[in-house]
Amino acid sequence: MLSEFKPAILITLFFTGLTGILYPLAVTGAAQTLFHRQANGSLITKEGRIIGSELIGQNFTRPEYFHPRLSAAGSGYDAANSGGTNLGPTNPALADRLTKDAAQFRRDNPDFTGPLPADAITTSASGLDPDISPANAQAQAGRVATARGTSPEAIHKLVADHTTPRQLGVLGEPVVNVLRLNLALDAQFPQKR
Amino acid sequence: MTSNGWLQIAIFFALVVACTKPLGIFIANVMEGRGTWLSPVLRPFENLIYKLCGVRRGDDGLPAEQTWTRYAASLLAFSAFSTLLLYAMQRLQILLPFNPRGFSANTVSPDLAFNTAVSFNTNTNWQNYVPETTLSYFVQMAGLTVHNFLSAAAGLGIAMALVRGFARHSVQTIGNFWADLTRATLYILLPLSFVIALVLCSQGVIQNLNAYTAVTTLEGVKQTIAQGPVASQEAIKMLGTNGGGFFNANSAHPFENPTAFTNLLEMFLIFLIPAALTYTFGKMVRDTRQGWALFAAMTILWFAGTLTAYHFEQQGTPALRKAGIEMTATSTAASAQSGGNMEGKETRFGIANTALFATVTTDASCGAINGWHDSFTPLGGLVPLFNIQLGEVVFGGVGAGLYGMLMFAILAVFIAGLMVGRTPEYLGKKIEKKEVKMAMIAMLVLAASILFFAGASSVAEFAKNSYWNTPGPAAANTNNPGAHGLSEILYAFTSATGNNGSAFGGLNGNTVWYNLTLGFAMLIGRFMMLLPLLAIAGSLAGKKQIPVSAGTFPTHGPLFVSLLVGVVVIVGALTYFPALSLGPIVEHLML
């Protein structure tokens, strides 16, 4: 057994160099060259400063913006501390929260009367979900239109334009990127301050 | 459930089937030391490694064949040293480079470092810490990424050793551990990972060594965005069925799994090598039908799990319905939404892809997650839990799935032999007392580890100022009351013993008690499985090959496949039904 320690030590050190240093650095080099934007976090800049990442959800609370999903990352949308609630299906705390948030969603969006979209009041897994479902966005359209002083139809159309269909027509679910949508809102229906 | 959901599930599986044979042949050629199209470049490099690292070689210049005891000694020496190195790296991270956040030994206590070192060495990748607030880039790369490669390579090697036991006859040796480790890493894992990492990057997975990015959001709030060399680890995390996330949210994090395409790719990677190994097995025992029989048994179990999880997640819970949430998917383009239980799930994946991911990651010993199993419906969450308890033999981990399933095959032919009163045979080898005894040891020790540790943690009480845990019952570390809390504890020890690493995330495991008990469970789960299997391999290799006769029970037909599925399910059900009925099953009845 002791004679096996020589190859054990040397092979471990060798592969630490190869797969632990060289490989990640080679991937970093290639990725920074080929996919520079993605490799650095798909960051979005506006007027010269970074306002977030296309892939990382950020919080919106004002009525004139579309709101993202609920987040349990840190104290909410903490992109350096991802996570979910881990509340179980029979936990009374979950049932209470759902009742409360359902009422809040209805208060925020008085024009909306249908059943709630599944993602509207549930917490995402990462706490950083950048997307909402098209149904969730449409449910908020009335509120946004009122706050921006424009017609609901115009907002509905904007949502439709910013709906990303399933990838390759089949994969995943149709989604609306909240940050992209809100940037488009600011561009097309600017707020008078 | 939607037709699109089923179409996506079908696409996933079609990809797995399509790659099984070509990759299976490639793996067989690599692991038997035959030439492949990569050999002209890599062979000299491979030989250089043997020379530099002092691997003992025979007269032909190739690594010397080892008996099963020597093979096991090599494995143990390698595991001991590499675990120690990872432990030291974590504790000394403040002295090492690539640490923009200045994480020190303060963020990694000795018990946590032990748990993590064991976890990554045993291919479990259970995580009692939040990576983005605990570990430096250097530890993630030179520590964790390395173990992602080597623990998978070691698993693959052991599976090959067992298959050689069946394929060879009247010899004492079952291969060379160092050669298996080196070849699996160099020819299979490393080249594939490099390509996959870049594909992941193209979709938005990050790969940099930057400091975390401070941004001011549109509403003027400060947000800090974690960065790091993610893609390089993500690729091997999935390909090596490791599953330890670069971030806490694992494959639910948009920087680890940004699109539906990367999600499909990641699920596919979990099954890629394990599925191919069934073909490798068939090829090495010179009867590919034997490999396809295992593949068929695995497919049946995979499909049953997927169907169950998808059904219950789409159905949702009374609490969700009471809040007025739509449970049926809406597919009209203008108002599409997934319906179902979306608590702890990501919008871009929806119900079908999260249910499928949960099934696949626990069929295999991967343990990556793209949604929190803790927030699944009771029976939806039962699927991943029971999958691990079945021994992760449904394609399973890299190597681990094949050797686990072969252990069940030994039991299946043993039971069939008892029924007809004939000495059981499998692949021309008599299955005798020693083999069955070893298979039973592995199975019983694993079950005992799960049930004993879970039972102990359910009743243990700690005094005030206890070193081991926060005062009061250990069961208070759960995030949910009642039956679901028990499920969290049961899941933790199941996942650790099964070397899976996924979690019902609500359990706070970062205390001395849980770090140590979970660490021991992982060691038991890995080595009390591997050592008996290597003993079986050694014993089989020494046996004579018996020719097929009219009395031989064919192990490539539907009868054997049904028997194998039956044995897997019955052993799992008999062992765990009492515990499961107190956890997820009673919770379902309480809905």
Describe the structure.
A 3-stranded antiparallel β-sheet of chain A has the order 3-5-4. A two-stranded antiparallel sheet of chain A has the order 1-2. The radius of gyration of chain A is 22 Å and the shape is extended. Chain A has 193 residues and is mostly helical. The model of chain A has no long low-confidence stretch (mean pLDDT 95). The longest helix of chain A has 30 residues, at 5-34. In chain A, a hairpin with a 2-residue loop joins β1 and β2 (49-53). Chain A has a domain at 60-188. Chain A contains 6 helices and 5 strands, in the order ααββαβααββα. Helices cover 45% and strands 8% of the residues of chain A. Chain B is mainly α and 591 residues long. Chain B has a domain at 400-590. Chain B contains 17 helices and 6 strands. Chain B is globular, with a radius of gyration of 23 Å. The two termini of chain B are 21 Å apart. The chains are: A mainly alpha (193), B mainly alpha (591). Chains A and B meet through α1, β2, α3, β3 and α4 of A and α1, α3, α5, α6 and β1 of B.
